[in-house]
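Researcher: Good morning. I'm working through a list of sequences from a screen, and I'd like to move beyond sequence-only analysis. For each chain I'm collecting a predicted structure so we can compare shapes side by side. This is the next one on the list. No need for commentary yet; just the structure.
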Amino acid sequence: MKIDKNIIKELSDYLKEFNLTEIEITEKDTKVRVSKNNVSVSNQPQTVSSPISLPESSNVKNQSVKSGTEITSPIIGTAYHAPEPGAKKFVELGKKIKKGDTIMIVEAMKTMNHVPSTADGVVKEICVEDGQPVEFGQTIIILE
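Model: Good morning. Structure tokens for this chain:
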């Protein structure tokens, strides 16, 4: 099996650009995962190629256990709290929101993606700062 070095380089660049710890792509029956090696001091990216998929339960949360309904980012990109700089924020602490309301925008590849709420509730915590990079599945808001 021959792996395209350009793909590995591009994924490594994404790790740095979006401050990610791991990124993975799948093409046909080949899966390429590039991740930062947190064990070594150099913190250089390492590459693993494997046809094995990991169960979702292996995702590690880097935050303490939170109570409430977590709303997660559907994609990787940059999170924005308002539709444009200086505009009113989509959500604020204590604001009541309904399922389907836009809670944030995540920009990916110059495309602004509106993130809808997956539940009704009151905003208990906003877990990301405006302009902060987010990963797929990262908690962005917690509702009561």
